[in-house]
């Protein structure tokens, strides 16, 4: 299998590296010059629960990619999807399929501008991955991916991709109800990412104050209500359990939205809170907490720019 990873940060490098270790031809595309340069110079190093390994993987900027792949796997932040796909558009061949494991909502619509819906797969992943430095990624703990074709069909290429993921140690399954999993993650992120971002708090700090903990659950419930109005049945008890577990066990974690604001980078708030806000307005479902967080994060982005 020929695989191209578009957005080879921590997650993209992990997936690409583990697939390369199984003998697949992998090309990593990213705009982080230090990361790319280190992979070109010394290879990609992965630290996992199975140990440390270093492998030679081709890495370059998106516009420098050379081979149309069987699968183009998109891991860029949602706000960079359009520009990244334009830069890599020459790699999308007549049979290339695209998989998005990105955060948020609206990813299929963005991909459809570049590839037909029947060649798009959409999903969600909980696989942990962190950058230790240029060319060096670590992943410790369990994670799982779910995905399905955007048109609902189980074509042979998608079935084979799932098998290849599992063989590479990337636990996954094809899931006809993947939209519920995507919305569940959005419900989690809209609350924890948004509130941590505007308060500068870690996840554990949110859980220390009853009123703030209640706000986390109220925000998440708004997302669940919008999803249900859209015809997607999200496991509400599961979401609220995940939130409590995170606040009690991931006490020092700074979510990506907070990290982006601290680094004066744009966030993914439009694809998370912003998308929920828009769906709520269209469906007549109030989202006061989600919408307020969206407004505040956008203001913080504007102030930091």
From TrEMBL:
GO biological process terms held by the UniProt record: pantothenate biosynthetic process
This protein's record includes keyword Oxidoreductase: yes
Catalysed conversion reaction: (R)-pantoate + NADP(+) = 2-dehydropantoate + NADPH + H(+)
Keywords: NADP, Oxidoreductase, Pantothenate biosynthesis
Domain Ketopantoate reductase C-terminal stretches: 178-301
Pfam families linked to this entry: ApbA (PF02558), ApbA_C (PF08546)
A Gene Ontology term for the protein's cellular component: cytoplasm
Family: Belongs to the ketopantoate reductase family.
Role according to the record: Catalyzes the NADPH-dependent reduction of ketopantoate into pantoic acid.
The protein's name in its UniProt record: 2-dehydropantoate 2-reductase
Organism of origin: Hydrogenophaga aromaticivorans
UniProt lineage: Bacteria, Pseudomonadati, Pseudomonadota, Betaproteobacteria, Burkholderiales
